[in-house]
TrEMBL record:
It is found in: Cytoplasm. The active site is at residues 289, 366. This is Multifunctional fusion protein. It catalyses: a (3R)-hydroxyacyl-[ACP] = a (2E)-enoyl-[ACP] + H2O; a UDP-3-O-[(3R)-3-hydroxyacyl]-N-acetyl-alpha-D-glucosamine + H2O = a UDP-3-O-[(3R)-3-hydroxyacyl]-alpha-D-glucosamine + acetate. Keywords: Cytoplasm, Hydrolase, Lipid A biosynthesis, Lipid biosynthesis, Lipid metabolism, Lyase, Metal-binding, Zinc. Its cofactor is Zn(2+). Its EC number is 4.2.1.59, 3.5.1.108. The keyword Cell cycle does not apply. Its main location: cytoplasm. Pathway: Glycolipid biosynthesis; lipid IV(A) biosynthesis; lipid IV(A) from (3R)-3-hydroxytetradecanoyl-[acyl-carrier-protein] and UDP-N-acetyl-alpha-D-glucosamine: step 2/6.
Length: 463
């Protein structure tokens, strides 16, 4: 999986009819800056409102996932989002001149093709992965649906579907490498059972549906008169049934388990609404949009709790800033330069590493015989980490001094001893105004919180 965030190199558009609304719309993918995420924009509405692709904005799950914000609604977002996740594109503005992305052929492949034509561009910011820290479970007994997210330092998904149908047997699909999405999953089309068609039309859905953008599974005996009626519904010449395949109008399947693969595609798109790329093993039995979104909400709740959102340190990876580069930014020198590496840095957060050794001067007099790192120096190391974040937020850091001017809610949770490696993470909690900025900071040893504080810093111009 990618370490750096990505966007597209140029804007690219696709046009087509929406599956459920039946409205023809043009969807344009527009490059976006780091940490922008996925946002839809209804350019056909007054003031062109923005809708964040966020699970908290889900308002309808009728045969697709619909989001709404700022008075604007976007129907059936899952295929679009799956294409972006599958290509590991992090930041895109998705402009729409209608209420629903084009259904195209019922899969994500046309979106993938368009995005690849636009080109993918790496950005100078690290991906803000959330590694699921514990077993997360969703179950709906009535629908016999069950989804699980398990800890894993990768992103893998397995789906099982079973419709108790004589036409479709139980199917499984897996994706163990996200880079295989475009080849193995993207072209898998949406599907519907014949017995559902009429009901969906009566519910004012699938207005844009026809045999070019969905697989119709014939799960019962069909009379000749019914075929004529179906032809009128689908606005097609007389349709037929290949009884050996159980598919309406002799559509050839791309894969024998295309239905399970499409459900996996939907799952990827719905989980994109968590708002961050995740690392987890996802297991799903008979998933649907409601279950997918329910699991996404559970994971987002876990993110909000702060549990599991602990920075990971791999000493084999090259740092963003080494000790010499840190010295070029910060004015501190031995014995008061407290940070050894910066291992992650973007517009809103920074992660620094402090290796604590018995050679530190303060151990000579601080609890001799029981060496414990002073809390005030833990705070100083955290503040220096935050200082890197503050300085790199301006184009001319050499012209400023970063000063710590406020501390609040400071707590020391555990002792820090020689031999410990402290991982500090600082995040902006408010935009910088007149050189003043607020941050939250936390320090971890072996995944355990050892200290935390809210800090206020000031950038003062050098005279």
């Amino acid at each position: 999986m990618n370490e750096k965030q990505q966007t597209i190199s140029k804007s690219v558009s696709v046009t087509g009819v929406g599956l459920h609304t039946g409205v023809v719309a043009t969807m344009t993918f527009v490059p976006a800056p780091a940490n922008h995420g996925y946002k839809f924009q209804r350019v056909d509405l007054p003031d062109m409102p923005i809708v964040d692709a966020d699970v908290d904005n889900v308002v309808d799950l009728s045969r697709g996932t619909t989001i709404e914000q700022n008075g604007a609604r976007i129907h059936t977002v899952e295929h679009t989002l799956a294409a972006l996740v599958g290509l590991q594109i992090d930041n895109v503005l998705i402009q729409l001149d209608g209420p629903e992305p084009p259904i195209m052929d019922g899969s994500s492949v046309k979106f993938v093709d368009a995005l690849l034509d636009a080109g993918i561009e790496e950005q100078n910011a690290y991906r803000n992965y959330f590694e699921v820290p514990e077993y997360v479970h969703y179950k709906n007994k009535e629908k016999d649906t069950e989804l699980v997210a398990l800890p894993l330092s990768d992103y893998r998904l397995t789906v099982m579907v079973d419709y108790n149908s004589s036409v479709i047997s139980s199917q499984h699909a897996s994706l163990n490498d996200i880079t295989l999405f475009k080849d193995d999953i993207a072209a898998c089309r949406t599907f519907v059972f014949l017995h559902e068609l009429e009901a969906l039309y009566k519910q004012n859905l699938i207005k844009g549906g026809d045999l070019t953008n969905a697989i119709v599974i014939v799960d019962r005996e069909v009379q000749d008169g019914e075929l004529d009626h179906l032809s009128q519904l689908l606005n097609k010449p007389r349709v037929s049934v290949d009884k050996t395949k159980g598919i309406l109008n002799n559509v050839d399947l791309h894969y024998s388990n295309e239905m399970a693969r499409h459900k996996l595609l939907d799952l990827i798109g719905d989980l994109a609404l968590i708002g961050r790329p995740i690392k987890a093993q996802i297991l799903a039995a008979r998933p649907g949009h409601a279950a997918n979104v329910a699991l996404a909400k559970k994971i987002k709740k876990l993110i909000k709790s702060g549990k599991g959102d602990i920075p990971q340190y791999d000493p084999q990876k090259a740092p963003v800033f080494d000790i010499n580069q840190i010295g070029q930014l910060l004015a501190h020198r031995y014995p008061f330069q407290m940070i050894d590496k910066i291992i992650a840095l973007d517009e809103n957060s920074v992660v620094g590493v402090k290796n604590v050794t018995i050679n530190e001067q303060f151990f000579l007099g601080h609890f001799p015989g029981n060496p414990v790192m002073p809390g005030v120096l833990q705070l100083e190391a955290m503040a220096q980490t935050g200082g890197i974040l503050v300085l790199t937020s301006v184009p001319d850091p050499d012209n400023y001094w970063p000063y710590l001017i406020g501390i609040d809610a400071c707590r020391f949770r555990r002792n820090v001893f020689p031999g410990d490696t402290v991982i500090f993470k600082c995040e902006f909690t408010s935009p910088m105004k007149r050189g003043i900025v607020k941050m939250s900071g936390r320090g971890y040893v072996a995944g355990q919180l050892v200290c935390e504080a809210d800090m206020i810093a000031s950038l003062v111009k050098k005279k």
